[in-house]
Amino acid sequence: MKIQHEETINSSENYTGAIQPIGIMFFSDEMIYPLKISTLSAPSWGTEVLIYAFSDERVTFPEATEEYNSIITPDQLKEYPILQGLIDETFTLTKLRKNFSAEEMDEDLTLLPVPKYIALSNIIDLSSPIGQFILVTGIFIFLLKTKKRNF
Predict the structure, then answer these.
(1) Which residues contact 36 (CB under 8 A, 6 or more apart)?
(2) Is residue 109 located within the same domain as residue 140?
(3) What is the pLDDT along the chain (151 residues), one digit of tens a residue?
(4) Which domain holds residue 76?
(5) Which of 85, 101, 119, 131 could form a disulfide with 124 if both were Cys (CB 3.0 to 4.6 A apart)?
(6) Closest listed residue to residue 5, CA positions, set 42, 37, 35
(7) 0.70 exceeded by pTM
């Protein structure tokens, strides 16, 4: 693999064809994807990043499209001997994808856990009259249904 610099003199020096994915392993307190280093070989229009994350829970990063997530057991990895040597316990596999422009690739990606619950304030603006009306209506319907169950 050759990293293409912006000042390439002869375009025939550029690599064409398929390349094998690169696996990078390092220790960190956070799940990091080293995106910034990819700017060295990214075309000016950007590149697509595809991440398979093995972790205790689902993860994401801003504007990522989640294509897959599932709990995986070691028994399910029998067909993949490379992974068997790395993973010996149950984990969550999350597949994420996003297209980045060259300008967006100025920082590494930090993968964050997906919240298990969505806060109501993230969906409804509770400071607006409409948001307050929806909240009061929801509480009223909840109380009616709870009261019906008690009878």
Answers:
(1) 105, 106, 107, 108
(2) no
(3) 445 555 544 455 555 666 666 677 778 888 888 888 877 777 777 788 899 988 888 999 999 999 999 988 888 888 887 777 777 788 889 999 999 888 888 888 899 998 776 555 666 777 788 878 888 888 888 788 776 666 5
(4) 11-116
(5) 131
(6) 42
(7) no
Whether residue 61 sits in one domain with residue 44: yes
CB 51 within 8 A of CB 100: no
> Domain tally for the chain?
2
The structure tokens listed for 7 are 């000042």
CA distance 107 to 37: 9
- Note whether residue 3 is domain-resident: no
